[in-house]
Amino acid sequence: MKDFTVSVKKLTDEELMREACETTFLGESHISLNSIYKSEHSPVRTQLFWVKFNGIPLFISTHLLRHHVGSVPYQLTCRDDRHGGNPGLPTKVDEIVAVLKNLSKELPFIGVAKLIEELDNTAQKIEWLKDNADRYTPVNLGLLVNAQSLIDMAKLRLCNCAHHETIIVFQALKDAIRKVDPDLASYMVRKCVYRNGLCGEQRCCGFNHSLAFQNELKEYLINFNDKQIGIKSELK
């Protein structure tokens, strides 16, 4: 996977969240974003973000846009008639095959230097196709997404059962979220951490029995007080 970038703009603020809360009762709300993220009550969806990925593989973009609840995707088209991300694989393969066939015919008549140059150019074209074709076709993806959706995405896309490159991209998203909303980032955790050790996958990877899991859970539990945790945690 080649270099990619992730950028995040936060579009709404705490004031809007409190205004939403105040429509549900008579009085003034003083609740914090941290508390609303923790409870995941409906005003959490007032917090909107514009997320933009540049140059991520097509298959990772597909993974992310499957989370359609609370997230509107805008993906670079792969149509070859709309200036899309399609590299035109069949045409480029035909061109490479034509060059190689032509070389085989001219082999007795061209010098070694010319042959090396043509083979090098062909190798570069093949290398380019390797990084730009099929599921690794680089695309751009924009998401207009709310905080609840980001919390839910994290449960699956930070999980070890996700593709390892999808985890890398989503971790980069979490790091970018942390810069504009650190409270939200602290609640974007993998599902086994969210469920305090329970795994819902058919085949558990075993992470929930690791020291790394204990460390992540301990960090996550900092967001909750003893009453909210309910049972005294040995990890505290």
Give a verbal description of the structure.
There is one protein chain. Helix 4 runs antiparallel to helix 5. The model has no long low-confidence stretch (mean pLDDT 89). The chain has a 4-stranded antiparallel beta sheet. It has 11 helices and 4 strands. 48% of the residues lie in helices and 13% in strands. By secondary structure, it is of the alpha+beta class.
Kindly name the structural category. alpha+beta
Profile the largest sheet: 4 strands, antiparallel
Question: Could you tell me the number of beta strands?
Answer: 4
Specify the helix fraction band. Answer: 40-55%
Across the major sheet, the strand order is 1-2-4-3
Give a short summary of the structure.
With 236 residues, this protein is an alpha+beta fold.
Write the layout of secondary structure elements.
Elements: E1 5-10, H1 14-22, H2 33-39, E2 48-57, H3 58-65, E3 71-75, H4 89-106, H5 112-132, E4 138-146, H6 147-157, H7 164-180, H8 182-185, H9 191-194, H10 211-221, H11 226-229
Antiparallel strand pairs: 1-2, 2-4, 3-4
Helix pairs in contact: 4-5
Key phrases:
236 residues; alpha+beta; 13% strand; 4 strands; 4-stranded antiparallel sheet; 48% helix; elongated; 11 helices
